[in-house]
Specification:
The chain is of the alpha/beta class. It has a single domain (about 5-175), classed as Dihydrofolate Reductase, subunit A (3-Layer(aba) Sandwich). It has helices spanning about 40-45, 50-60, 95-105, 115-125; strands at about 5-10, 15, 45-50, 70-75, 90-95, 110-115, 130-135, 145, 155-165, 170-175. The strands form 2 sheets. An 8-stranded mixed beta sheet has the order 5-4-3-6-1-7-10-9. A two-stranded antiparallel ribbon has the order 2-8. It is globular and about 45 Å long. The two termini are about 15 Å apart. About 25% of the residues are buried. The model has no long low-confidence stretch (mean pLDDT about 95). It binds NADP nicotinamide-adenine-dinucleotide phosphate. NADP nicotinamide-adenine-dinucleotide phosphate binds near residues 17, 53, 73, 74 and 76.
Length: about 180
């Protein structure tokens, strides 16, 4: 079974996107000269699993940003084909988090980037996240799509380190405790 890794940005009040999905508050001009470590993180990743919400957001970008295989978990999209430009890069499936990880493991993945609010919550609930890098942008947006949500039991984390950037972004690295 591959390990799951989260690298995500949130508002200080814990949202990954506004309610309408917009991210205007997340990437600010003052971040442009800062290296938040995304390139180093993604280099070590074999495959990406994300929810339909994140997939639809990425589709609106100017260009497809990933050179790793992307598995989109979606009841709506399962059984359909991705757009021609994404053939061979993206696949859709309706799988539980464990089944998704087993599927990616059979394809040779050992480290999987887990992305999207609801999807991160589901993978956390099922004990499939090994570590998380959470970058908090110093802004309160009041409401939106949450990174974290209800849990059947507490999830204990080990704080590895926290780095602060001149822009005010505060990045904390956590590993999950057994
Ligand atoms: N701040 C950041 O760093 C960051 C990172 C990633 C994404 N985002 C933003 O976050 C937003 C998307 O997050 P989100 O929480 O709305 O959606 P999400 O987690 O990306 O996707 C949720 C969707 O995934 C599908 N799904 C399949 N299996 C699921 C399961 N076991 N549990 C939950 N959902 C499952 C469902 O779609 P079906 O109805 O098709 O089944 C569900 O609606 C976008 O606006 C994106 O831009 C921000």
């Amino acid at each position: 079974m591959p390990t799951g890794h989260v690298f995500i940005g949130t508002s200080l009040d814990g949202f990954v996107a506004r309610t309408d999905g917009s991210l205007d508050w997340l990437i600010l001009p003052e971040h442009k000269d800062e290296d938040h470590g995304y390139a180093a993180f993604i280099q070590d990743i074999d495959a990406i699993v994300m929810g339909r919400g994140s997939y639809e957001a990425v589709l609106a970008f100017d260009a497809w940003p990933y050179d790793k295989p992307v598995l989109v978990l979606s009841r709506q999209l399962a059984g359909t084909e991705p757009p021609d430009a994404l053939r061979g890069k993206v696949s859709f499936a309706d799988l539980t988090p464990s089944a998704a990880m087993e599927h990616l493991g059979r394809k040779g993945a050992t480290r999987v980037y887990v992305d999207g609010g609801q999807i991160v919550q589901a993978f956390l609930r099922d004990g499939l996240i090994a570590d998380m890098v959470i970058s908090r942008v110093p802004v309160l947006i009041g409401e939106g799509r949450s990174l974290f949500g209800p849990l059947a039991r507490d999830v204990k984390l080990r704080h590895e380190r926290t780095v602060t950037f001149p822009s005010g972004l505060v990045q904390s690295h956590y590993s999950l405790r057994a």
